[in-house]
Every structure is written in C-alpha cells, then in structure tokens.
Specification:
One of its GO terms (molecular function) is glycosyltransferase activity. Strands 3-2-1-4-5-6-7 form a 7-stranded parallel beta sheet, with helices on both faces. The chain is globular, with a radius of gyration of 21 Å. By secondary structure, the protein is of the alpha/beta class. It folds into 2 domains: 179 residues, 3-Layer(aba) Sandwich (Rossmann fold), CATH 3.40.50.2000; 178 residues, Glycogen Phosphorylase B (Rossmann fold). The two termini are 17 Å apart. The longest helix has 18 residues. It contains 15 helices and 13 strands.
Length: 366
Amino acid sequence: MKRILHVTGTMNRAGAETMLMNIYREIDRKKYQFDFVVFTSVKSDFEDEIKSLGGKIYVINEKNAIKRFLKLRKLLSDHKEYQVVHCHTNFSNAFHLLSARLAKVKKRIAHSHNTTDKSRNVFVSFFYHKIAKAFINGLSTHYVSCGKEASKLLFYKNKSVLVIPNSVDVYKLADYGESSKNYINNLFNLTNEQLKIIQVGRLQPEKNHLFSIEIAKELRESNVDFRMFFLGVGLLESKLKEKVKEYGLEKIVSFLGIREDVPQFMGGADIMLLPSFYEGFPVVLVESQAVGVPSLISNMISSEVDLGSKTIHFEEIKDSYIWSEKIKEIVALPETDKKERIESIVEKGFDIKTNAKSLIEFYNLN
C-alpha cells in the first residue's frame, strides 16, 4: 500500500478539503491511503470519516512558521513511508515543501486552489509572494491546480501543471435537485411562495457575507417574502450576527453552522449567492450546478466556473440593490434541464471518478 501525505492545515468543510475528501472516497484504499497534516488541535469536521476510511491525522499545533517547519521536517524524517507529499496551503506551501525536501521526500507536489491571495497588505504581499513563489517552483517536483487561473498564482509559465477540477459526484447531486424540492420548506415550515436564499461557505472576509446581509435589507425594503440561510462557520460570525440584529433581520437571516445536508439545502433553495472578493474554483459552484440551483455570483470569480449548466449568473459586487433586483429576475427563469446539466458538467471534466483516477496515476509518475 502506498501512503500519500496531504498537508492541508485543516480538514474542515471548505472547498479544497471537500474536493480532497471527494477524491479520497473514490480511490482504491487497499492500494492507496491518504494521511493528513493539520495545524490546529481543534477536531476537524472530516476527522472521524478520515479515520473510518483508514487514514491518519497528524497534528502540528504551532502558529510560529519556523517551529511548524521544523516539526513537519521531523515528522517526514521519522516516517520514511511518505515518498509523496502533497501540499495544499497556497503560498505557505513554500515552508512545507522545504521541510519535505530536507527530509528527502522524492515527490513533492504543490497544489494551487486559489486565483488570488489577499491575506496580507499589498506591500507585504508583493515581496512575500515573490519569494514564496520562487521557493515553491524551486522545491516542487510536480504541480497541480484547480484551474488555469489558479495555476498562474503559484507557478511559473514553464511548469507543466496537472489541472484537477474541483470534482463532484455529478449524478448523485443531480438527483438531489429533484428529491429535495421541499427540504427547506419542511425544516422551517415555509411555503413555495416564500423565496429561499442560501450562501454556503466559511464566514470569512473574502466570502463577503456582509454584502449578502445588505441584499437581505434591500429585499425586505421591497417587501419580498424570503428567508436567507448562511451555511458555515468562521471568524466573522459574531460581527455578521450584530449586523443582522442592527438591521432587524433576525427572523429572516439564519446562521446554520456546518451542515452535512448542503446538497439537500441546494435542492430546496430558489437561489444561491456567492459575492466573494476572490475564489479559486469553488467546489460549491460545481455542486450547485449539478443540483441545478441558480447561483448569482461575483464577477471577481473566474468565468471558468460556468460549466454550461445555465445556472450561473455573474454580477459586480458594487450595489446590493442591483443584486436584489437580479435575484428577482433569476428566480423567475424556467428550471434548467437535468440531463443537459449532467452532460455539460461531465463533458467539461468535473466527474469525480475520472479525476480520482487521474490523480492516482499522477502519484505514480516518476
């Protein structure tokens, strides 16, 4: 059995981690196993499932980058069975790849999951990114990304990059689009006449939930009968709840935390919002297109995310009133055809079975 070590930081229900788990569930685990390095002692959302599938989780609970680097190097030096290390932590990949290089790991893979990185101020970012990118390209033996735009963020033009789209079980999700029409209605005692809006993702600045709350305010002022649901947790939860309270939207906007029934919520929603400032290739948009729920999303997100499902609608994140009006237009459109959606998504390479096979073949390359 070949064991592959993934350096992820966390294994929570976020885009990159969800994609990784989708692949993990599909591989032949008698021949290959995935293990994970996380940088927090807080239990990960996927921890129990990982262990049930035979995987291991190594915790390096260090905020200091140097201490983290040293502990990862020691881990890899002590566990020579890991000859493939796959890093998923954006520009921080540089530190982890150096640990792997010094531990003499043969195959060191850098994976780019985002199209931009705004985690630091502009001045610091410019120099940090330049240096980190040089290290990543110098220390990696192989390169993976979720799309062409994400490749540009971390890798030089001369690098050969395997593009693994953020794949899903298309057929299973498409069925939810039919079977879960009344899911939200039944959970919250709502009617078909009430508009149901969802946003799926971490409550982090880049996801721009504050803008969604502004949209909710506009919809209420135009007397729309609706409910808005945020599925996810994050640093901004308290701030967002304060804004909801300030606007008197407590009975309209709900915070539902981490959910295992996201596909069912998609099936029961009238529209999904994603007004993000930046994204890589969000798994949630692949899922939503398979389910068939219309999505109104920021034009800061790459047009690559439109898989021909006829459910994706782009808009500038400048005016919440415009978004509120756009929502009314979109929900009035006829439903898309299930068969056509499936064919388009599969044709564009987003079927999980195909991509799981491609990644395993990639691990076996010299």
